[in-house]
Structures are given as structure tokens and as C-alpha cells.
Design goal:
Blueprint: H1 3-19, H2 22-42, H3 59-62, H4 65-89, H5 91-95, H6 99-103, H7 109-149, H8 163-180, H9 182-194, H10 199-218, H11 222-238, H12 259-263, H13 266-288
Length: 292
Amino acid sequence: MSAPAARPLYWSVRRELWENRSLYVAPLSVGALLLAGIVVHSMMPPHEMPGVASREPAMLGTSVMPYSLAATALSLTSFIVGALYCLDALYGERRDRSLLFWKSLPVSDLTTVLAKASIPLVVLPLLTFAVLIATQLAMLLLSGVLVLAKGLAVGAAGWRLPLAGMSLVPLYGLLVHALWYAPLYTWLLLVSAWARRAVLLWALLPLLAPVAVERVAFGTSYLLSALTYRLNGARTEAFRVRAQNEMGIPILQLSQLDPLGFLGSPGLWIGLALAGAFLAAAVRLRRDREPI
């Protein structure tokens, strides 16, 4: 894409960030809550602190679990914020009639819809990753200060955390889930462009009603399995975690990543094909729809 052609897309993305502060306020708030949790944890007496016995280094210095929990919390926040954003992205501008103003500008419907789709697919994962790295660094520094303030020993060996895995694995996971959830995000954009009211209901009804009908009429659950696979399949397709009893194990090693397996997964490409169809339909609907 040439620079003049990319400029409207760039400014359209910036407009979305200006108008939707929750896109960055929500991850920052979760990061702040995680740091507040560390402070509360530090107020516990040493004998009550998990992982601390006989004045050993505190939990945050010796365990990767708090950092893994931070990554999980921020990833879940990214998904929820992205889904809520998509539900309102095209519906909101019809509801408040700002659609008339934006259509008067020399920006095509395709550029507008692509800018909105890039928020959950590109911008939010990168923004969440930046907040995650800042949060984990603050957790590490704050925990060290708090441990020293309590007079506990800080052994160098105890602070050897898998920093490469703690940074690269979450980035990989955020990008993988953005691609895997692309059909879900674009489906919500499509419903947002079509529905006149009750957007959430219209988004869920076409997905859940066939599941109930299949179960009642045929006693099978193939559609439910397909929906569950779309929600949870990224972990088994993109990571070397195949056994059911391994699903709860934190992924912190680069050796656990399986990008070739993910790129070779039919579920990924079927989902991307659906995402492209939903995007095309959303562009067409935005072109034809009027304000509510």
C-alpha cells in the first residue's frame, strides 16, 4: 500500500484510539491492580507469605506464577475489550448519527472498516504487550524493593527468571489469539453494522440457537464442539500442549511454541476465510446503512 493510500487508514486508526479510551485505559487499569496486589501481598507477615520460609526470597522473586497470571489477566482483558469494541464500532456511529459526518469525509467504507478491524487484530495485542512488559518489570522491581524492606535475603540464584520466555511467549500468544479470534471479532463487526438494537443478542443468537436446536433435534453436539474449538483451539494448535492434563501448565519456554503447527492448522485458515467474508459484508452494510 502506497503512503498516500495508507494515510487515511493511519488517521482512521488514530481516530478510533482517540474516541475509545477504554482500549488503553482497561489494560493500564488491570496492570495497576496487579501492582496493587503486590503491595497488599507484601503487607503479609513473612511466615504467611507463599514461598517464604526461614527468610527465603519472596514469591515474586523465585516464582514465575505471578508473571504468568499477569499475562493471563491482560490477555483476557484484551479479548473482552476487543469484543466490546467490535460490538459498538459500527453500531455506535449509526446510533449517535456521527455516521453522516464521517461519510462526508474522503475516507472509503473499506478504509473505515479495516481501521476498526485492525484495533482488536493488531493495535490491542501490541498495546497489551507493551502494558504487560511494563507491568512485569514494575512487579520485579517492586517485589525486590519490598523484599529488601522486609529484611529478607535476596539470592541471585533465586531471581533467575526466564525473561526471554516471559516476554516473547506472551507476544506470540497475543498475536496467535488475535488471528485465531479474527472470525469472532469480524462477526461482531458485521452484527454491529447490521443490528438496529440489542447488538449483543443478535451477535449471540445465531451462534447459540443452532447449538440448542442440534442438541434437541439430533442429540449431538457437533456445533458446540466447533464453537468450543474456536474459543479454545489456539492453545492446542499454536503451542506444544496436546495432553488434556497439560492445559493448565503455564507456557514460559520458547520450546513450547509451535508456529509451524499453527500456520498449518486448517482451523486458522478457515477462520481467516470467514473473517474476510464477514469484513466484506460489514463494508457493504456500512455503505448501505443509514443512521438509526
